[in-house]
Every structure is written in structure tokens, then in C-alpha cells.
Amino acid sequence: MTEQTPGPISREERAARAKTAFDHLESPQDALVLFDDQFIFYYCGFAFFPTERPVALVITREGERILFVPRLEREHAQQVSEAERVADYPEFPGQHHPLRQLADLLTGLGLEKAAIGVDHDGYPPVMGYDGPALSEALPGAKIQRVSRGLDHQMALKSPAEVTLIRESARWGAHAHRLLQQYTRVGENETEVEARATKEATAAMIAALGDTYRGQNRWMSGAVALYRGQIGVHSALPHAMTTGATFQHGDTLVTGAGAAVWGYISELERTMFVGEASGEQRRFFQHMLNLQDIAFETLRPGRTCADVDEAVRAYYEREQLWDHWRHHVGHSLGQRIHESPFLDIGDSRPLEPGMVLSVEPGLYVPGLGGFRHSDTILITDTGMELLTDYPRDLDSLTLPA
């Protein structure tokens, strides 16, 4: 399905991210201490499962990266991370708490009285973790949250990142085609999802080769699913799987994507089992109109709020507010949801390199939900669709 097999983000690109991270901050910092696993992966390539044992990444102004891990992760971190140094502590909670050992490490680097930018003031409460704030463990330092600046850096995707997101979109579409093909009256949602995902993942692995890795905590392989949005339950934007059996007349809302070297995409479609009713057709067309308005508004220089406001004006004009549930979309890449957000309350400007979902929806209790989601790239002159899947009613009507 692809002529050139994409590889992971290069060591050089990750190292450059660490050195330039400080350029995105609103105030000068002497160092960064990051606890979020996604920031850690972004800056040093260490993909791991967060537990109650703290993991932190220290980045100095010079770009040196020091990865602080529990003993059980030492070899893992040494083998796969790109940090210049790995430091470890015995266990959590231990006799000497890990956050106080991290404070000792920072003191050894001469940062005990420094300005330190953080994503959290200490390790967040994961799996029962409890411990002091970093500002408590290192009282002489000036601790300041800088997540907004780091989120801005992460939002501006490099050409290599866009390549991986394109590849994710390609395989997500393949999984979705299989999902659509196998969905029939009398079939079970769980079995159809499993079959489509298994076959698409096998095809992707065969194409991308033995060195391929997903490296994403939200998605594994090439995935297509319904998440319970079947029939009347499709009117619940975040429904959960119920093991439903497909029936004639069902409104279906799908989701598909693929994990490719840490990056993902988002593809969602509204489908119907059998010919759509007049009401289904009416709301389907409104949904297409809403997404088209968003597409027309997405371009550099406009703000995230501008997009949501343009879409909201259509809800107002067509008297659809009873069926509104959420904003237009969000950034994505490593995370399934990233910043910024296509929301009336987000005044940040759209910039070339941003990758976002576009997914305004309508939800009609008793009838169903109506939502397409596409992944787009903000370009120098407008936007580009990265997901390529039919949007029209005929293409999304399944045999009854």
C-alpha cells in the first residue's frame, strides 16, 4: 500500500527538539523536568507504560537529557531511549522517596536554586502514587508550569511527523474498509471489529516490515471499531461497546486509525444499514455541511475559535442546538487528543504544520449520531486532508 516504508523519528530530530524546547516558553528557564510519558517520548524516544513508579526527564539548557527511572526500567531505558544519561532509583515508595532522589539529582546538577519548567509540580497520581511536589522536595528552586509552550512545540509537526501520520491514515482507511465490508445485518459488533482489526494489522505489519513498532499507548496496530455507537446508542458521542448485533435501519458511527512509530490519525464515518430514512438523510446532510464549513475556515491566520464560531453559526441558523454536544475538533499526533482545540474558548492561531481532527457532530436521541472525523494538516495556504475515505451517503450505505 505504500512504496516507501517510513521509519521512526530520527535521533537528530529528537535531540533538536530538546535544545529548542526553551524557545517555545513564555519565560526563561534553566532546565525542564517532565513527568508526562508523552513529553518524555517526544523528547527522548522512551516509550513506556506509566505506573506508580515515577519516571522523569530532565533537559538542561544545553540540551542534555537525563532520564530518571525506577531500577526495573534501567535496561529498558538504556536500550531504547536517546537520553544522554540514565539515572535510576531502587523502588517506590522505598526508604528514600523517588521525588527526593530526583531532587538530589537536580542538586547534583547545580539546579537547586534554578528556574525549572515543569509539566506537573511532581509526579501525577498514577496507579496509587503519592509523594511530595517537586517544589516541596526542592524548595530553593523556582518551579513553574510550562506545558502550554511545550504543547505549542508538539503541535507544529515536522515533515517526518506528517509522514508518519499520513501512513497511519492510510492504514486506518484500510481497516475501515474491512470494517465496512464485514458489517452486515445479524453480525456482532465485537466480532466484526476484531476481524477487521486483525486483518488490517497483519497487512500493515507485513508491509512495514519486522522493524515496525507502534509505540502508542492509545492504539495498537491498525484499528477499526464502533465503540458501541450502533443504532440509538450512536447518539451517545462517547458510548461504550455493548456487543450489539447489527439490524436493518441502524445508524452507525465508526472510528479507525493506526499506530505508526508513536503517531496516530483519526478517521470516523457515519454509515447506515440499509437505505437511510428521510430523517437520517436530513441529519447526515447537515453533518456534511457542518464539516464543510470547518474545512473552509481552516487556514493560517485564523484562530481555533474562528472555526468553532463558524460552525456554531450554522447550528444557530438551522436551529440544531438541541443536537450539539461538542466542539469542532482538536490537535492530534502522539496523543489521541492534543492542544490546541477547535473551540470557541481557544484563541490560539492556526499555523502551518498543525494536524487536527475535524469532527462536528449531531446527536438525535432515538435516531442516532451523525459524525464524520477527518485528520487535516494546516498548510501555508489552507488545509490538506490526510485521511482519504468517502464521505457521501451512497458510499456509506451498507446492504441490508
UniProtKB/TrEMBL annotation:
Pfam family, one: Peptidase_M24
Leader sequence residues: none
Residues of the Creatinase N-terminal domain: 30-148
Highest taxon of the lineage: Bacteria
Ranges where the Peptidase M24 domain occurs: 164-380
PANTHER family per record: AMINOPEPTIDASE, XAA-PRO AMINOPEPTIDASE P-RELATED
Name the record gives this protein: Xaa-Pro dipeptidase
Organism per entry: Deinococcus aerolatus
